[in-house]
Amino acid sequence: MEHLGLPDLAWLRKMIVERALTRGDYILAGGARSDYYIDKFSLFSDPQVLRRIARLFTPIVAEVNPDLIGGTELGGVVIATAVSQLSSIPLIAVRKKPKAYGAFADEYVEGPYTRGQHVLLLEDVVTNGGELMAAAARLGELGLTVTPCAVISRGLAPVRALIQFSLPRSEPRTEN
Predict the structure, then answer these.
(1) Cβ(9)–Cβ(152) under 8 Å?
(2) For range 161-172, the mean pLDDT
(3) What pTM was estimated for this model as a whole?
(4) Tens digit of pLDDT for each residue in 22-53?
(5) Which H/E stretch holds residue 33?
(6) In the CATH scheme, what is the code of domain 6-164?
(7) Whole-number Cα distances in Å, 78 to 29, 39, 72, 83
(8) Per-domain boundaries in the chain
(9) CA-CA-CA-CA torsion for 139, 114, 124, 166, nearest 10 degrees?
(10) pLDDT of 174 higher than 70
(11) CA within 20 to 30 Å of 148's CA: 11, 59, 83, 137, which one?
(12) Sheet of 68-72, strand order
């Protein structure tokens, strides 16, 4: 990302490799197979690391100037909460499925918002960006303007992210 300095990018990549990266054969949220997995909760569970990652969004918050910080269920809500606390901008959470109980059943969004507000919508790790773009579309249907952004992009999504992170496969694949 153009706003981050090389030390910030180097630190985030180092944290990913040291704390969150595992090798194996994994099926990702979108159904794709990968020979590595990024366990973002290994990063987010450390309050000092989470705070530093949240601070990396400071230039984006200044540029976008949102009315709300939004987070996608589940990992996006964690990072959005930290960014909201640092920026003093109110938070909304966007569910994958509508809430099925309580006073606001059948709603995707938790937290107050007003039609026309601008939301910086945060996600943790994206591969193809499908979940993030679906959440952005749901907010758009409610009359909100949305700027989607992720902490980590695995390089396949047309989504702005703090860091593009991809690794060469451990073995060449020949199937499509």
Answers:
(1) no
(2) 74
(3) 0.89
(4) 999 998 887 888 899 999 999 999 999 999 99
(5) strand 33-38
(6) 3.40.50.2020
(7) 18, 13, 9, 9
(8) 6-164
(9) 60
(10) no
(11) 11
(12) 109-110, 91-94, 68-72, 118-126, 145-153, 161-164
